[in-house]
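Aim 2, interim progress. The first record below pairs a target sequence with its C-alpha cells.
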Amino acid sequence: MRDISKEFAKFIVDDGIIKFGEFTLKSGRLSPYFFNFGSFNDSAMLARLGSFYADTIVKEQIPFDIIFGPAYKGIPIALTTALALHNNDAINVGFAFNRKLQKQYGEGGNIIGASLAGKKILAVDDVLTSGRTIKETKQLVESEGGQLTAFLVALDREEKGSETALSALEEASKAYNVNIHVVARITDVVAYMSDAADKEHHVTKIKEYLNVYGK
C-alpha cells in the first residue's frame, strides 16, 4: 500500500522545503527546523503539494462540501488541492478563502469563492504548531453560516499543547470539535532522514527538540 506520509517526507527534505538551523516560532520556541512554505514557488512544486493534500483527502475519506483556505498560506493550498482533486480524481469541489481586511466596495465582505452557508467546511493550512489558526478559522466559518468539520495540514510538528497534557493537535481537536488530519508528521521526516549520513546532525537536533517540546 502506498505510504503518502513517507513520500511527502522525502519530497520536503529532498526539495529543500524543510530548512535547518535556528528558527524562532510564534510560540517563542527556538526550533532546529522550519517548514518553509515559500519554497513552493513554481507551478510544478505547487501542483505536487496539491496532489499530496488531495491524495490524503481521498485516502482518509474526509467528508466535506467546500475547501477553505485561511489567508494567507491557506489560499494557494486550497486552490491547488481543489485542482488536484478535479484533475487526478474527477472530484469537483467548491473552494473559498478570506481576505485579512473586509472589503468595503464592489461585492464587499471578506469571503471570496463559494458560499460557506449551510456547508461542511474542510480548511487547509501548512503546519500545525498550535490551535490558533483553527480557532480563528472556526470563528470565521461559523460567522458565515458554515460548519468547520475538518482541518488538513501538511505537517504536524507533534508538539505539546499549551494548556493541557495533550498534544497541540489533540488539544485543538478537542477544544474546537474539529477532526484534524495531516499529510505527514515530523517523525516521518526524522525517519526518512535517519538513513542519510549527511542528515545525522539535523536528526539529532530535531530529536533533542522533541524531547523537550514533543508529545
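The second target in this work package is listed in the same format:
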Amino acid sequence: MANSTRRHVSYVDLSHPQEWTKLLEYAEVTIALTKLVADFSNQWAKICSLASSQLHQLVNDFRKKTENEIRAKCHLNGMMYDLWESLLLETDIESQSLKKVSCIMEKNIYGPLSSFVTNKSLQLTINREHRRDLDKITEKGHEMVKELKEEYSKIYNTHGATSDFDLIHNEYFLEIVGVNGLYSKYNQKILPQLLQGMEQSQLEIIDGTCQNMQLIASILQEFHERRHSSYASFVVTSSSANPNEEIENYICSVNESNDRSATPPVHIQFESFVSPINHNSRLHSISSPNNDQLIIYAAPVIQMQLSSRCKETIERLREIKKEKSLLLAVINPPTPKPLVKHSDDQQQ
C-alpha cells in the first residue's frame, strides 16, 4: 500500500498550467510503464505455457523411445535406468511447474493489472477534461468581466452618470464579484482537490506497478527454489552411482535368470598345422603337434625355399650382366686402329 505520510511538497504546489502539462506527461508515462509490465507478464505466461507443452511432449517422445529401443530389447534395471526415469520425471515436473507459473501470471498479474491500467487511463482522461473545463469557465468569466468593463467605460465616457450607467455599473460589479468568487473557489478548493486526486492516482499506479513486479519476481523465485531443490536432490543421487556395482548386479541377474546346470560347458578346439607338402607321414598322423615338432618340420621346408630363391636370384643376375654387355656394345662400338706407323715405314 502507498505510504500516506505527508511530504514536504505535493501536487497542490504545482498548480501552474505549465506544471499541469508536466504532471499529465508524468501520469501518461507511468501508466505506459504499468502497461508494459502487464504485457511482460502476459508474454512470460505464454512462454511458460509453450515451454510446458514442449517439455511434456519431449518427455512423452523419449519415454516411447525408451520402451521401443531399450526396454523392448533388454530389460534394464539398476541405478542407470532409475536415473534415466528420474530425469524424465523431473522434466515432466518441470513442465507442470511451468504450466502453473503460466496460470498464476495470467490470473494474478496480467488480468488485474490490465484492468488497473484501463481504470487509471480513464481516470487520467477525466482529470484532464475537468481541468480543461475549469480553465474554460474561468477564461469565459474573465472575458465577460472584460466586456462589461469596456461597456461600462464607454457609457460613462459617452453619456456620463445616467441611469444606464448605473445599471451597467451594478452588472459590472456583480460580474466581478461572481468571477472573483469562482476564481477563489477554483484555486482554493476545486483545483487542489483535482491535484490531490491526481497525486493519489499516481501513488496507486506506482505502488501497484511495483507490487506486481515484486509478485512476478516472487513467483519466479518460488518456482526456481522449488525446482532447484528437486534438481539438487537428483544431482546428489546421481553422484552416488557406481559403474562397477552396476555391472556386477547385471551379471548376477543374468546368472540368476539362467539355469547353470543346463548350460553345456564350453570346449575350445585349437587349429592344427597342416603342411602342403607330404614330407613326413608320421607328423601328419599326429593331430596336435607340439612346438618342437613344428620347428623341426618347418626347417627343411624353409631351407628348400631359400635354396630355390637363391638359384633364381643368381640366374637373374647373369641375365642382367648379359643385357648390360649388349647395351654397352651398342652404345660404344669398337674403333679401328690408326695406320700412321705404316706410312712412316714406307718413307724410310
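Residues 79-159 form the longest helix (81 residues). This observation will shape the mutagenesis plan for the next reporting period.
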